Amino acid sequence: MSTTNQTNFDASTSNVGVVATSVLATRPLNETDDQTAQEYEVFRRPILPQIFSTEAARYEPSQASSSSTSNTLPAAIRDNWLSLARSGLQPATMNKLIRLARKQDGWKGAGSVGLKTGALRSFLSFWRAISDEAREPFLTVTPAGNLYAEWHASWRRHLDIEFVGNGEVFFGLFHTDEILEGRSRTKPLEELLKSRRGTPLLWGDG
């Protein structure tokens, strides 16, 4: 009979977590710059037709103004525009994120909220750090407005991460007879996952 080993991981009390800092703290650009009409217009022309090929077409602003940008793009997308443009995510994933960001408060009943800007920002920060060693996950939004990512190989091997904003995540790693779950910052979680056997960041159904 096999024995399941379960470990609770909390970066705030681990050696890795103590010395690590959030990737967000070192990002090269101030993400609030994404909201300016000038930057939006510069990136909109080459990126919309090529990357946001399907979903973004419905968000074309009629003129380059901050008001038109605010009225046509979901807030989580607008406020993370430059990071999305530079993320390297595939068009299908980009379009999925736009669809998720369109969910409004109350979409799942009373108390549910739309995708939070900070949750998407945390995911993009994490993705930039691990994208060279990972496949793109399945994404969805939780009723709390967090972004949920899953790398799924089977019911016995899957990695689930919930991005709640401010670089904080909740995660569960299920690998045959081992369960590792807890709360972390993005940076120590990146290091932890890269060191794990079985390359969980490459798990997928395909």
Quick description:
The protein is 33% helix and 21% strand. It has 206 residues and is of the alpha+beta class. A 6-stranded mixed β-sheet has the order 1-6-5-4-3-2.
Task: Itemize the secondary structure elements and their pairings.
Layout: E1 5-10, H1 15-19, H2 37-50, H3 66-72, H4 75-78, H5 81-85, H6 91-101, H7 117-130, E2 138-141, E3 147-154, E4 157-165, E5 168-175, E6 178-185, H8 186-194
Parallel strand pairs: 1-6
Antiparallel strand pairs: 2-3, 3-4, 4-5, 5-6
Helix pairs in contact: 7-8
Rg for CA atoms: 18 Å
Sketch the topology as an H/E string, one letter per element: EHHHHHHHEEEEEH
Tally of strands: 6
Distance between the termini: 31 Å
Q: What's the pLDDT, averaged over the residues?
A: 75
Q: Order of strands across the widest beta sheet?
A: 1-6-5-4-3-2
Largest sheet: 6 strands, mixed
Q: Indicate the low-confidence ranges by residue numbers.
A: 12-54, 59-70
Number of domains as seen in the coordinates: 1
Query: Helical segment tally?
Result: 8
